[in-house]
Amino acid sequence: NAGVMQNPRHLVRRRGQEARLRCSPMKGHSHVYWYRQLPEEGLKFMVYLQKENIIDESGMPKERFSAEFPKEGPSILRIQQVVRGDSAAYFCASSPLRGSTDTQYFGPGTRLTVL
Amino acid sequence: GQNIDQPTEMTATEGAIVQINCTYQTSGFNGLFWYQQHAGEAPTFLSYNVLDGLEEKGRFSSFLSRSKGYSYLLLKELQMKDSASYLCAVNMNRDDKIIFGKGTRLHILP
After folding, report:
1. Which of A6, A101, A103, B61 could covalently link to B74 via disulfide, CB atoms 3.0 to 4.6 Å apart?
2. DSSP string spanning B27-69?
3. pLDDT tens digit string along A52-83?
4. Among B6, B27, B96, B100, the residue to mutate for chain A (most A Cβ within 10 A)
5. How far apart are CA A78 and CA A107, in angstroms?
């Protein structure tokens, strides 16, 4: 049973470009969470999605950031017109059930560097 | 707002015992996680406490007091590979929204 997969592992973008980060949850998991981790900082919740639904996006910046989890395929975190402050590690986690006590399983992360 | 506090850094000696404390003030509480994160890697699950008391799992134990908003992670027989950041995180609601502390960086000396 493969774990949570994220790609790319490392992404370099110039200011103003778009970044697309992908997350494939564990098999059987229908809940996906995105977190951002700045250097020397804790993980910050961004968004919680189920298939085709955004459940909680209270941690998402209002502009330039969007997320989706289509019926087929991975979840995508999209950052438009990236700025240097977007440089961070972006982690995706998945869980099987809403409101379960099962923990969230984290992917290896995508490290975004904005030049 | 939500607040989770834990020490920034701690140092301990190989073979010893170390206790990492975490206090929290959150608007909701369903349980408390501890994660281990090595530099440049994803967090890995260590424990999840829902009820008050101590839960032991091998060399690692985790304690929770809901009335005091307090938890600790106890690591025994420290090994060099235990050098990592330890993240305290609160599960705030039934949707499993987790709020993380900034983490405690643990250095193990030989």
Report:
1. B61
2. S--SEEEEEEE-TTS--EEEEEE-SSEEEEETTEEEEEETTTT
3. 899 889 899 989 999 999 989 999 999 999 99
4. B96
5. 17
